Amino acid sequence: MYDLGQNLTGRINVGLVGTGYAAKLRAEALLQDERANLVAVAGAEKARTETFAASYQAQAIDSWQQLVESTSIDLIIVSTINSEHSAIVRAALESGKHVVVEYPLTLDAIEATELIALASYKNLLLHVEHIELLGGLHQAIKQHISEVGHVFYVRYNTIKPQHPAPRKWTYNHESFGFPFMGALSRLHRFTDLFGKVLTVNCHQRFWQIEDDYFQGCFCVAQLSFESGLLGQVIYAKGETLWQNERKFEIHGEHGGIIFNEDTGQMVRRDGTVPIETINRKGLFTKDTSMVLDHLLTGAELYVTPEQSLYTMKVADAALRSAQTGLTMVVD
Hints:
Pfam families: GFO_IDH_MocA, GFO_IDH_MocA_C. InterPro entries: Gfo/Idh/MocA-like_OxRdtase_C, Gfo/Idh/MocA-like_OxRdtase_N, Gfo/Idh/MocA_Oxidoreductases, NAD(P)-bd_dom_sf. The protein has helices at residues 21-32, 46-55, 64-69, 85-94, 109-121, 136-144, 173-176, 179-182, 185-194, 283-297, 305-324, and strands at 12-17, 36-42, 59-61, 75-78, 98-102, 126-129, 151-161, 197-207, 216-225, 230-238, 245-252, 255-260, 263-268, 271-275, 328-329. The protein has 331 residues and is α/β, with parallel strands linked by helices. The chain folds into 2 domains: 12-129, 3-Layer(aba) Sandwich (Rossmann fold); 133-282 and 313-329, Dihydrodipicolinate Reductase, domain 2 (2-Layer Sandwich). Helix 5 links the parallel strand 5 and strand 6 (126-129). The two termini are 33 Å apart.
């Protein structure tokens, strides 16, 4: 069990970094759980942070540095831009705080390895959120995948046209990171379902008219798995795309599983059968509840930081492939 210090109220005191969409869902989850107490919030803009904190009966803090140094906080939740994750996580762990961070843990696999080792050394929780594993699509695939026989090809496309592209951090190279690192869940679905990857071949293209922000990106990767499976994943967004798509296909020797958005079907010789999925809502609440269970009772979490790190290594191989034009072996 972890040492939660002198928490005399029997509740876990939480500090939250971020005021965006994910931070909002975290704050709502904490407010609904009597085992947690959202103490303080740190954000990039003072006025926005004060408004956000007041909405959840929390204190607004000027900086995340002050937040992680607070002696009244047991757990730090990091829900801010990707490029800031590593510095905040490191500071929180060094200050003796348990940490929950939205994927990716960092934008660099070597640094992620160091942070996982630091958490282990200090006997602190480091949980990297991967709620895609908890969602209805992923759970339905796990439930039905044995029915299609030996799987030989999978494809996962997420294409999001935006006209005009928003001028925000998710369209900034430095803040978001390499697409398959910033959007790590696209690859993590594959590694969770299909195991080890041998090689990656990746190509990317960006459309950009200013230094700080791009207007469109298209990134495609082919993955060769140890099992012989071939996978393809596309991540694309922005002004140069024209048709929205979120499609997951699994092709086996005895059938296929096809998901368009959240609508799934099993396809076999004898016909097509719908696949039911649970609602996507409430996944951050479920993740938060599981973290509190883990801290207070030792209950097992659904994903380990090492599993997230492995997927980061696959993403790193994709990056090196995109940069060199060569097929890369995953370390």
